[in-house]
Amino acid sequence: MSGAGKLWVVATPLGNADDLSPRARQILGGAEIILAEDTRRAGLLFRRLNLERHGKLVSFFEHNEDKRLPKVLEYLEEGLTVALISDAGTPLLSDPGFTLVRACRERGIAVSPVPGPSAPVAALSASGLPPLPYTFLGFPPRKKSQTEALFLAHRDTGATLIFFERKTRLAGTLEIAADILGDREFCVARELTKEYEEFLRGRLGDLTGLDPELRGELTVIIGPATAGGRTGEAELAQLVAEEGGAGGRPKEIARRVAARAVGWTAKEVYATMCPQ
């Protein structure tokens, strides 16, 4: 669109202020409109970065994105420069902005990324889990049945799975992952680039060592299924007999067997133990 402005999609630091790129600093300093999830946090970010702001801060978050969209498009069609930021990292990845970017593309308004920090990529790069292929899932759904369906849809893709999770839901989500995906390596990346950054590794088959009181921003990486063929039914039956001899409820036995078997989830093991 001739004479239209431009939308910049700008990545901002996850925690370490030094990760702001010179280009991002230049764009944010010169933008006439800055769209932010939380204008208060955005103001604090500008002060922390010692970044002089000339543009107007406008709130732009999940629950007002549709309402704000016409006015933002109007700004752009008037020729203004608009910068989109999230609370941290790269916008659109579990943050608002997709509707705006798509609308700009449909109207011929220029959109350009200013790449930089991204929690999924940063976590994956330092996790020690297979980097390719990978699939980013955002935040898992709140309902258990929907989370089960999500993991089931990605169970057999061979991809490393990356997602965000809240600390109060982490243990429950990993238990669901163990039931659906089976025993796989996982890593929880906590407080990326901040003072208390931490990478916690383990296996879904044994979640006993995971601290339920983890704090901070959490990014979870789950590796692909173990390479090699699936454990045969005869060997599976032997494992069921061994674990059954150790006692416990059927679901507990199924989970222990799944931790030892290759390519079997706890639900599948349980189904062989207790056929309908």
UniProtKB/TrEMBL annotation:
EC id: 2.1.1.198
Principal location: cytoplasm
Entry's Gene Ontology cellular component terms: cytoplasm
Catalytic activity field: cytidine(1402) in 16S rRNA + S-adenosyl-L-methionine = 2'-O-methylcytidine(1402) in 16S rRNA + S-adenosyl-L-homocysteine + H(+)
Compartment annotation: Cytoplasm
Coiled coil: none
Domain Tetrapyrrole methylase: 6-207
PROSITE patterns named in the record: RSMI
Entry keywords, A to Z: Cytoplasm, Methyltransferase, rRNA processing, S-adenosyl-L-methionine, Transferase
Domain of life: Bacteria
Similarity-based family: Belongs to the methyltransferase superfamily. RsmI family.
Protein role: Catalyzes the 2'-O-methylation of the ribose of cytidine 1402 (C1402) in 16S rRNA.
NCBIfam families according to UniProt: 16S rRNA (cytidine(1402)-2'-O)-methyltransferase
Protein name (Swiss-Prot/TrEMBL): Ribosomal RNA small subunit methyltransferase I
Source organism (scientific name): Pseudodesulfovibrio aespoeensis (strain ATCC 700646 / DSM 10631 / Aspo-2)
